[in-house]
């Protein structure tokens, strides 16, 4: 049977769940946030990557309900953490461009915050560079509206799209996440180092906080800290984990 038929039933069958990956301040390695990442455990195929089922959900009109569920689950979880290290940290949630385009998105976000009791300032919505195409007046107004309500915005996978500097200047947003394809080759590859330095310098001078993703080695972390990148995320610190494992991980860190 086509995978989409299974995907339609996956939520009600309890096959969809979230894992969480910590983000740290590079300067002191304190945990400052957690990114929620969706997973699908298919009864026959095993784990299906979101790279496969998110596009499927988008193509078949399932992304809004899936996305709302992810957001609510992540907010509920974050509101309930009471381990010292996790209390009050930010929660980042990936959002599909189709969700942003759906009418009432900002109200839906607000309702979920009310329902789960998550403080608005703790929520970061991650959008991809390409979901905010240039001259997207409506998209810009939506991000403005969300930020006026206290939600923070991160540009995910930064550097892989076609952002111009004027776009970076005008986009209502708080964080830039340097794509891990650039992190992979630092330190050592002069071109990768140059790109990382440039993103941090331009981003910070435009008021963004910079997050590096995919940090796997101490050398990468040290290099990124030396160029004043603010935060980091990657296997060096922790893999994405189920909520219970994350709580154990957090307790061990204190
Ligand atoms: O977690 P992993 O590396 O397998 O994620 C693969 C891709 O799926 C990444 O680009 C990630 O941003 C995306 N992704 C993970 N969880 C979500 C989600 O809840 N919503 C959306 N829209 N994308 C997600
Ligand atoms: O596109 P986005 O940044 O949302 O994707 C996050 C994805 O990156 C997650 O699926 C996660 O599993 C993966 N990831 C997180 N840390 C690392 C890392 O250190 N190395 C690699 N290769 N992937 C990572
Ligand atoms: Mn992300
Ligand atoms: Na990314």
From TrEMBL:
<protein>
    <submittedName>
        <fullName>EAL domain-containing protein</fullName>
    </submittedName>
</protein>
<feature type="domain" description="EAL">
    <location>
        <begin position="1"/>
        <end position="254"/>
    </location>
</feature>
